[in-house]
Amino acid sequence: MPEPTARPPPLPDELARYADDFNQSQALKLFGTRISFPTTDRVRIEINPLRTEHLGGMGSDVVNGGILAAAFDLALGCTGALVDPKLRNATTQLSITFERPVRGRLLRAEAWINSFGKLLLFSGAELTDDAGRVCARATGVVRLTDKPWNNGHSPVVY
Q1: Candidates 3.30.530.20, 3.30.420.40, 3.30.70.270, 3.10.129.10; CATH matching 4-148
Q2: Exposed, middle or buried by CB within 10 Å (0-12, 13-18, 19+), for 54?
């Protein structure tokens, strides 16, 4: 596998195709999540609207921590697409700091690559509520591979 630093960054249309395909997956539809790439160095995950099944954190109307962890896992895992959207990758480590409860109608997580080497990405992310307040932060390690996705361009599973 060539050094990631030697690769040109993916084109916006490659990232858009990855997002469009992935957004069609049953998993993301069930979770109520959409992925996008607002720039070629950012991944955005949104749950809009938040649904009753997303709630229950602290036994109340706040978003459950498991939902936040899943959103971070997805956002950080998708930073692999910022290197090469056609190749498989996986989150291998996830660390979350919860700063405030998430309430409201939507949540948004944005992730980016802090640094990377031949096989590992070290990524960061923030999760905000519908008022734009940072509610949680995460760091993660993503393992890159040289294996293409089953459909050749995204991790979508129908």
Answers
A1: 3.10.129.10
A2: buried
